[in-house]
Structure formats: C-alpha cells, structure tokens
Design brief:
The chain has 311 residues and is of the alpha/beta class. It has a single domain, classed as Rossmann fold (3-Layer(aba) Sandwich). Helices cover 32% and strands 20% of the residues. The chain has an 8-stranded mixed sheet with strand order 1-2-4-3-5-6-11-12, sandwiched between helices. A two-stranded antiparallel sheet has the order 7-10. Strands 8-9 form a two-stranded antiparallel ribbon. Helix 2 (87-101) crosses helix 3.
C-alpha cells in the first residue's frame, strides 16, 4: 500500500422529509480535495470504509477518493430507530453528502451492499454516476446466500479477548480470498473494538439486520418476487427493475466461488447491458476484498480506460 494518509471527516446528516432524522456519518478522503475526478467507495453489509485503504491509496494520484462508513458501521453513528437501517436511508445519506461536498459527478465502487446502493443511485440519478463498479453483486441475489450471510451478521457477538474476536473474524471472512498476513492485520485493526466493559465486538450494530422485517425491507419498493420462485426459505431478491434503468458503463467483479453473484446471473448481465465488462477472480468467494494488486489494477485500469489484465 502506498504511504498516503487519508483525511478523516464527519458529516451530520440533515433532517429528511421522511422523518429519518439526524445522524452522523464518518468518511475517509484520499488525494487532492480539489480534484473533480472523484471515486466513491461503499462497503458491504457488515464492513466499513477502511476495507478500501489499499485501493484508495492506489487511486489517490489520479482521483479524489471518498470512502464512506454507512450508518451503523465503522465510526458512523448507530441508529436508535433500527427500522431506519434500509436502502432509503443509505441512498438519502449519500445524496445529502454529495450536496454537502458540492459533488455532482462521481465514479462508484460498491462491494455487495455498497453495489446495491450504487445501483439504486445510478437508476434514480443517472446524471450523478459516470462509471459503476459492482463488486460481487448483481440484479438477482439468491435467497440461500442472503440466509447464509444473515446467519452471522445479525448475531450480537461479544468476545472476552481479542484473540477470540480475531479468530471469529478470520472464519467469517474466509471466502474473501485474503492471502497476506498484512491484509489480515489491517482488517483486524479496523473490524474489532474494545467496549468499556472490556468485551470485544465487531465494528457494526448487529441490528442493521432486524431479521423479522428484513424480507419486506429488501423487497420494499426496490424488489419483487420472481414468478415461480420457491415458496419456502429465504426468497431470492430481484433488482432487475433497478438494473434495467442503469445506463452508465459497468464493471462487474466476481469471485469464482461466489454464492451471491452466480454464473447464471453474470450471463444475464452480459446480455442485458452493451456497456458492461466482467472480471472473475480465481479462488475467491463473496466478496473480493480489493486489497490484492491484481484486483486493484483491474479497477484502476478500467476507471482510467486502460485494457484490463487477463486473470
């Protein structure tokens, strides 16, 4: 990772018309703050902005990079009203942040949940997103994959010592293709905190996924049941209504072993968008961490309109 230091900022979200209230967001900035070539990085469901430190460090010479802690994660505020943990809040937050920073055009890099937020923004505000990078996420998410993720994200973990917390984190991120101990140490540093009672927890509110309401939230105005889909178990989530409205160029990254972005969905994405490129990383599941040099170079080269390396 390049020896470039980020700048740390907080943003107090203004009152929204839909009574979503005020809350504080944390974000990291890299590169020249006057640079109008901007990349926004948004993390996955239970992750945080520091996942992008390696990528941001490599992009900072060409771009102003802004990495956001979605509300309830990292150093952003945990919400008192847990029902506000939904995509309406997340989208409203980034739009208000853009207004606050005077940003009108950006490139978006989104991992998993961050990719869904990016798809919604691109479909609703086509004038904002110039290029969209979707990291291991697409317009159809298998219910079995969602159920697997929720089996650990929605649990309230507390550990008596950091060793146990680190062991649990490594188990949780085993599919992410993390090979270097340097990367593991970085993730541990920014994924685990010590509470006042001496216990260790992960850096997110476990109630970001209040499971009794999650299905209806995920469907909401964003999704619909697929005709003929399974009636039992966790339903697949269909985002094709959003996907079909996206017009900007798209780079989709996929982990070869991903259960969230399947090969079948990738083929549908290829045929439905003339301005899409797909890159698959061998030996990785959900989701590539964008810390390895080969993964970073794919994103950087695509943003800079350079040929993508063969992987």
């Amino acid at each position: 990772m390049k020896d470039i230091k980020p700048r740390f900022n907080y943003f107090k979200s203004p009152d929204f018309d839909n009574d979503r209230g005020r809350h504080i967001l944390f974000y990291c900035e890299w590169g020249d703050p006057k640079n109008t070539n901007i990349v926004i990085c948004v993390h996955g469901l239970s992750r945080n902005s520091r996942d992008f430190d390696y990528l941001a460090g490599e992009l900072a010479d060409k771009y102003r990079v802004i990495c956001i802690d979605v509300v309830g994660r990292g150093k952003s505020e945990w919400l008192g009203d847990k029902s506000m943990y939904d995509y309406e809040t997340y989208v409203a937050d980034v739009i208000k942040l853009f207004d606050h920073l005077g940003i009108s055009r950006i490139n978006w890099v989104g991992t998993s949940m961050g990719g869904i937020i990016g798809m919604i923004v691109a479909s609703r505000y086509p004038h904002i997103i110039t290029k969209l990078v979707l990291n291991d996420i697409g317009p159809l998410i298998p219910g079995s994959a969602i159920e697997r993720i929720l089996s650990y994200v929605g649990s309230s973990y507390q550990f008596h010592n950091k060793i146990d917390a680190e062991r649990a984190l490594r188990t949780r991120l085993a599919t992410f293709g993390i090979n270097k101990e340097e990367h593991w140490k970085h993730l541990v540093k920014y994924s685990i905190i010590k509470k006042l009672n001496g216990k260790y927890i992960f850096t997110y509110d476990p109630e970001i996924v209040p499971t009794p309401k999650l299905v209806s939230k995920l469907k909401g105005i964003f999704t619909k049941i697929i005709p003929g889909e399974k009636k039992s178990g966790f339903p697949d989530v269909n985002l094709y209504d959003i996907w079909n409205k996206i017009t900007c160029p798209i780079l989709t990254l996929r982990g070869e072993k991903s259960d969230v972005l399947t090969e079948e969905v990738v083929e549908q994405m290829k045929t439905s968008k003339p301005n899409i490129e797909i890159v698959e990383f061998e030996g990785v599941g959900h989701a590539p961490m964008l810390m390895e040099e080969d993964q970073i170079s794919v994103v950087k080269n695509w943003l800079l309109k350079k040929p993508l390396p063969k992987i």
